[in-house]
Amino acid sequence: MQLKLSLFEEISLLIDPDELQTFLALIPQGFFLDASAPFNEPKLEKKDFLSAYTNYIENLKKGVYTDPGPLFHLRFVVEENIVKFNPVAGGKWILFFEHPPIHLKHTTAIVSSDQSWKMHVFGKDRLFLGITFQFPRIYEGKDRITRKTVGREEFKAFRQMSRWAKEHTFTLKANGAPIEVRVSKKSLLWLKATPQLKEFFDSGVLE
Predict the structure, then answer these.
(1) Which helix (H) or strand (E) holds 17?
(2) pTM summary value
(3) What is d(CA 169, CA 36) in angstroms, rounded to the nearest whole number?
(4) I need a surface site. Which of 18, 40, 94, 198 has the fewest CB within 10 A?
(5) Tens of pLDDT along the chain (207 residues)?
(6) How many CA atoms lie within 13 A of 93 on its CB side?
(7) pLDDT at 72 (0 to 100)
(8) Are 24 and 50 within 8 A, CB to CB?
(9) Could you give the CA distance from residue 105 to residue 181 in angstroms, rounded to a whole number?
(10) Residue 66: what pLDDT?
(11) Residue 143 has what pLDDT?
(12) Percent of the chain at pLDDT above 90?
């Protein structure tokens, strides 16, 4: 049985890969796991999210828009002892977390005909807008007792990551209003030239 989570805090980033490397280095003991599919054996398979993100950004710059799939829906773990393996049918194993890890999801948006922006939506003509890190304030474990995440190492790590984002990035604006994507001065230089977003910057919709 998976954890039941609620009241997520989020950090949505569309920054340079070098900046993401600095961001992740804030939590040197952290690592990424794919919990989306069963495993053949109960063995941790750590994923290289930084490489996946770097490839994603290089594709954006070239106008190649490919859904990165599971690599943008990983779990970021700080305390390795929260990771457990549960056996399932067919001799497979699935990951279970005793306490919530930090979740990742692909940041996307769809622009309506009236130029309004709908965030975190997939569909035709979606925009690719980086990565979102999520962490819940409240969770329930196998016993279904409600607990707060305050004090957990993942909670402390997420707050440290949030502080970095506030100090080194700023929110994009669409039609004069902030949207849930944080960029940097460095990333803005190439974002304005990306084939998918250039028209929005040129028209003044994005700033």
Answers:
(1) helix 17-24
(2) 0.93
(3) 30
(4) 40
(5) 478 888 899 999 999 999 999 999 999 999 999 998 888 988 899 999 999 999 999 999 999 998 899 999 999 999 999 999 989 888 899 998 999 999 999 999 998 877 788 888 877 789 999 999 999 998 887 888 888 889 999 999 999 999 999 999 999 999 999 999 999 999 999 999 999 999 999 999 998
(6) 14
(7) 96
(8) yes
(9) 13
(10) 87
(11) 81
(12) 69
* Cα–Cα distance measured from residue 56 to residue 128, given in angstroms and rounded to the nearest whole number: 9
Name the amino acid, one letter, at 142: K
Structure tokens at 117: 């922006």
**Residue ranges of E strands in the chain:** 4-13, 31-33, 46-47, 75-77, 83-88, 92-97, 102-111, 117-119, 127-140, 146-148, 170-174, 177-183
- Give the per-residue pLDDT at 121: 81
Three-state SS letters, 54-78? HHHHHHHHHCCCCCCHHHHCCEEEC
DSSP per position, 159-174: HHHHHHHHHH-EEEEE
- Tell me how far apart the alpha carbons of residues 42 and 44 are, in angstroms, rounded to a whole number: 7
Q: Which of 64, 82, 68 is nearest to 139 (CA)?
A: 82
Residue 129 has which token pair? 């807008």
Burial 23-43 (b: 16+ CB within 10 A, else e): bbeebeebbbbbbeebbeeee
